Structure formats: C-alpha cells, structure tokens
Automatic annotation (TrEMBL):
InterPro entries: ATP-dep_Glu-Cys_Ligase-2, CP_ATPgrasp_2, UCP005522
Region (Disordered): 470-500
UniProt xrefs under PANTHER family: BLR5612 PROTEIN (PTHR34595), SLL1039 PROTEIN (PTHR34595:SF7)
Location of the Circularly permuted ATP-grasp type domain: 86-462
Name of the protein described by the UniProt record: Uncharacterized conserved protein, circularly permuted ATPgrasp superfamily
Polar residues bias (residue ranges): 490-500
Length: 500
C-alpha cells in the first residue's frame, strides 16, 4: 500500500483488479523495481501530481502531440491522456522479453519469405493453406519477389500483456504500419522535464536513440540498385491520418523528408521526389500507407494517395518499401495462433513468449465452444483494430452476446475468440486518487542486418475503472515505460542524456 499520512492518499484497489497481478506490489510489500516510486509518491500529494499532469497536457498540446479519430462521433484532434506515474520493468525482465521478441520477429519474417515463395510450412501441414492463400492480407503480387535482405517487416510492434511475475503473453503482432512510437519518445521527454530528480534517481535505459536506430535500419534496407548513400523518406497519407503527427515527428527526428503521393513520381522504374532543387532519387520509403493505396496501377485504381508505377520500381530493385506490401499476412489474427509453430519450424527453437489460447470461429468445433461460452470470452474481428468490433464477454449484456452470436454464425471466418486474461495493473493517477489500472506494452522491433530493440516501449493504460481496453481510440492513455539498468543510479545530467 502506497501513501499514508505523509501524502494524504492511498491506492484504492477496485474489485475488478483484485485477481490481476499488481506490478508494484507482491507478497504484501513493494516490488524492488518500484521502491523509488513508492518513496516519490509518499513525498508528493495528489494536488502536486494533478498539477504536473495538467502541465504535461499543456506541453503536449503546445507541441501538437495529437491523434485523429474519425467515425463513431470521434474528435478529429485529441490528446492521448498521459499518466505521470511511470511503469517499471527490471533489467532481467526486459532482457527475457527482448530475446523472445527477437525470436518472434525473425520467425515472422521467415514465414513471409516462405509463403511468398516455396510455401514449405503449408506443405508441411502446419498451417491450413486456405488461411493464407485466401486471406485478404495475402498479396499475390509479392509472389516470387524477395525484398532486400529477406526482410518484410522492418518495423514491428508486438503487443504484450502480463498476468504474473513471470507470465507475459503476446496479444497481437503488428507487422504493417505499427504506430505509437512517437508517444514512447515524447513520454520520456515529458518525464525528464517534469520530474528531473525522479529520473536522475533511477538508472533508466535510454529510448531517445530510437530515431537513429530506425534510420540505420532503413538505410540497411537499401535496394540492390541504390547508388551511393541511400535517400530515405517517409510516405504519409496526409494530415487527415490519425498518426500524421508521428509521421512528421519521425521525419524531423531522422532528418528526412515526409512526402505524400503527389510529391513522388516514377520514371524508368526509378522513384523521384520533387524538390525546389529539382527531382531527387528516393531509395527507401518508410511508408505509413496501407497496401491498397500504394500504387493505383497495381492495387486500388481509385487511390489518390499512392504513386503510379512505384510497385514496378520496387520489384525492379530500385526502391525499398518498408514495411513490405503483403506483410499483413503475418499479423492477421487468424494466423496468430500458428506463430509458435513458425518458431519451431523455421528456427528449431521453443517459443520464448507465449501466445494467448485462440479459437478460430471458422472451425466448427471452435465455433461451437465460442457460442456456448460467449459470456467468458473476448471476441475480436480477425482483421479489426483499435478495439472496435470487440465483445468482452464478462462485461457484456445478453443482448450484446446475442448480436455477436448472430454475427459469428453469419460470417464465422471473420471472428476469433480468446479467454479473458487478468491483465496486470500498475498505479495510475485516477479521478479518485491513485488506483490500479490495467496495462499492455508495445515494444518496437527494428529489423535490418540485425534486430534492434530500444528498451521498453509504449505502455497503454485503460483509464476507466475495471476496463481492459487500452486503445487510445477507446479512452485509453499512455505511460512512460522505464527499464531499470543494473548498477548505481546515474547523475541527473547523465539521466537526461540517456533519456534522449
């Protein structure tokens, strides 16, 4: 229990969180990684923390850190709520996660190289061919073509949840255009500015070098016909995209151009961007554009966002698209249950990170089980995102379950189901004080000649009491994620430098 008379508050444990693993407390005491946070919370009252939260909000608003929400009555310009109490991981916890993440992303890249060529895993009978070849995320246009270095997903975001001291599960793989890394970086900057002494009192592993690592990864992905130093740019759908701030932020941090489709053109299977000094050849595009819109000559003919002829330039070895078109086949929720099999098949290793048990509703036996146990399962769209189209059985009404049963029976291949996990909780500044709230973690994995991972990632927090939905579009917030290195705490100046 944190607080007492010194601070005038205590952590309120809500009923929904009692069976969840409390990352700050264990065995009636405070876990060692959180010892410094406990002392800090005792020394600061709620009013002081609330004032710092307001200061962080003003900072984010001034800098322009917003995301857009369209549809369902959303606010097109919204701040993601930032919680000022950091989430802590010990170095040994992180090292174990990093090994598992590296293993998983290697296998996912090998899977994509395989299904777009020899399809050995399908012939081995480990994955039903129909799940791959009839999947809308599978791109026949990529068959017979291998991107430079055999890398399909250069930037991956793997969503993890925790249920116990040593129990981490992969909830979802994001191999197309994973977002949120700018919030990871800005959250650290905010903590360094708002709480310099707290940061200086902990040996924080750095995250601020992520843009440098990203740029190096993209340069390593240069196509075979690159001439000299690779020219890298970020391709954005434009300012109406929900992650447009992030596109501009990363371009600025890397010192590269952010371009839209109309800024580019293709001539003799070479991609150029228009500049005030004339056309400039582009070698690598970090594209934040969905597959369908990349090239109207190959994919959607009505796309006004892409670049006519860019796919031909890609296959000709004159440009690299990161991530590769067709990478979505690796993060489809219907493919997710087979990732442990991929690891064993391609790497001949036991998976280091566990999957959540998953039911595929297109299977008759799985569907029967799901329909009978809707009240205890989480049902998701196989190709959904952002927390939309989801049923959380224990928190649902009879009418909602009946509606989902109709949907599943009508289109069973569109749905998967998983047991409801007791997501771990961390202390969070809530309306009633400091209370436990459920969290997940999205580390970002970069794959070039080697695999690079900055320590930590984006912690997303379900701010509503008892909620398990952490998505920002559904009312979730974010926290800074601290991985504590071994050894004594650095000086304040060293800590600020480490935070980037």
């Amino acid at each position: 229990m944190v607080g007492g008379r010194e601070s005038g508050f205590r952590i309120n444990h809500v009923n929904e969180s009692r069976r969840a693993f409390d990352e700050m407390h264990a065995g009636g005491g405070v876990r060692p990684a959180y010892a410094g946070i406990e002392a800090w919370l005792k020394a600061h009252g709620l009013e002081a923390l609330a004032a710092k939260r307001a200061e962080a909000e003003a900072l984010f608003r001034r800098v322009g850190i917003t995301f857009a929400v369209y549809g369902e009555g959303g606010d097109p310009e919204r701040l993601i709520p930032f919680d000022v109490i950091p989430r802590i991981l010990a170095r040994q916890e992180w090292d174990r996660l990093a090994r598992g993440l590296t293993q998983r992303v290697k296998a996912l890249n090998m899977f994509m190289a395989d299904v777009y060529s020899k399809r050995e895993i399908l012939r081995a009978g480990l994955i039903p061919p129909s799940l791959v070849l009839q999947n809308e995320a599978f791109r026949p246009e990529m068959q017979g073509f291998t991107p430079p270095g055999g890398v399909y997903t250069h930037i991956s975001g793997i969503d993890l949840v925790r249920t116990g001291p040593d129990d981490f599960y992969v909830l979802e793989d994001n191999c197309r255009t994973p977002s949120g890394v700018s919030y990871m970086l800005e959250n650290r900057e905010a903590m360094l500015r708002l709480f310099p002494q707290l940061c200086a009192g902990h040996r924080l592993m750095p995250v601020g070098h992520y843009p440098e690592e990203l740029l190096e990864t993209l340069k390593e992905a240069a196509p075979p016909n690159c001439q000299g130093e690779p020219c890298v740019a970020i391709l954005t759908p434009g300012h109406y995209n929900s992650a447009y701030y992030e596109h501009c932020f990363l371009a600025d941090e890397m010192g590269v151009e952010v371009v839209e489709g109309f800024d580019l053109f293709v001539e003799d299977a070479v991609v150029y961007m228009r500049t005030t000094a004339g056309p400039k050849r582009v070698d690598v595009l970090y594209r934040r554009l969905d597959d369908d819109y990349i090239d109207p000559l190959v994919f959607r003919p009505d796309s006004m966002l892409g670049v006519p002829g860019i796919f031909a330039a890609y296959r000709a070895g004159n440009i690299t698209l990161a991530n590769a078109p067709g990478a979505g086949i690796a993060d489809d929720k219907a493919i997710y249950p087979f990732v442990p099999d991929m690891i064993r098949f391609y790497l001949d290793e036991a998976p280091l990170l566990q999957n959540v048990p998953t039911y595929l509703c297109e299977r008759e036996s799985d569907r029967a089980y799901v329909l009978e146990h809707l009240h205890e399962l989480v049902v998701k769209l196989a190709r959904g995102s952002g927390g939309y189209g989801m049923l959380i059985g224990p928190h649902s009404t009879a009418e909602q379950r009946e509606e989902f049963a109709r949907r599943i029976k009508a289109r069973p291949a569109d749905y998967i189901a998983q047991p409801t996990l007791a997501l771990s909780t961390v202390p969070t500044l809530a309306g009633s004080g400091i209370a436990p709230r459920h969290v997940d973690l999205r580390p970002y994995i970069l794959t070039g000649k080697d695999v690079r991972i900055v320590p930590g990632g984006l912690t997303r927090v379900a701010l509503r009491e008892g909620s398990l939905v952490v998505n920002s579009s559904q009312g979730g917030g974010t926290k800074d994620t601290w991985v504590l290195d071994d050894g004594p705490a650095p000086t304040q100046s060293q800590s600020q430098k480490m935070g980037g």
